[in-house]
């Protein structure tokens, strides 16, 4: 496909659509979204508590760099690690699978 200058480059939208159609990409995208949302939720709770990443790491038995990677959405921790983070923040960890409203 040509770009606006006719130089033969694909547009971003065309490239994205082509890449999203590749096997496994949709699952990877969803995992990245989940990692980002989990990290943002933990960061919000940590900041509300007035804690640094190092303080959360100490309370949860982790390293500060592991907390930083998690909050940035760079990793999805295991359920036991999420449990330790939740306990350290005096928060509830809720994991559920629910039917979508549009599915009978």
UniProtKB/TrEMBL annotation:
<dbReference type="InterPro" id="IPR001387">
    <property type="entry name" value="Cro/C1-type_HTH"/>
</dbReference>
<dbReference type="InterPro" id="IPR010982">
    <property type="entry name" value="Lambda_DNA-bd_dom_sf"/>
</dbReference>
<dbReference type="Pfam" id="PF01381">
    <property type="entry name" value="HTH_3"/>
</dbReference>
<keyword id="KW-0238">DNA-binding</keyword>
<dbReference type="GO" id="GO:0003700">
    <property type="term" value="F:DNA-binding transcription factor activity"/>
</dbReference>
<dbReference type="GO" id="GO:0005829">
    <property type="term" value="C:cytosol"/>
</dbReference>
<dbReference type="InterPro" id="IPR050807">
    <property type="entry name" value="TransReg_Diox_bact_type"/>
</dbReference>
<protein>
    <recommendedName>
        <fullName>HTH cro/C1-type domain-containing protein</fullName>
    </recommendedName>
</protein>
<dbReference type="GO" id="GO:0003677">
    <property type="term" value="F:DNA binding"/>
</dbReference>
<feature type="domain" description="HTH cro/C1-type">
    <location>
        <begin position="42"/>
        <end position="96"/>
    </location>
</feature>
């Amino acid at each position: 496909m040509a770009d606006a200058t006719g130089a033969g480059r694909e547009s971003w939208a065309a490239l994205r659509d082509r890449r999203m159609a590749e096997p496994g990409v949709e699952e990877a995208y969803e995992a990245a979204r989940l990692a980002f949302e989990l990290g943002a939720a933990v960061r919000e709770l940590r900041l509300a508590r007035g804690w640094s990443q190092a303080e959360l790491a100490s309370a949860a038995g982790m390293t500060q760099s592991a907390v930083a990677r998690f909050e940035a959405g760079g990793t999805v921790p295991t359920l036991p690690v999420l449990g330790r983070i939740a306990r350290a923040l005096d928060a509830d960890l809720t994991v559920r699978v629910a039917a979508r409203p549009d599915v009978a």
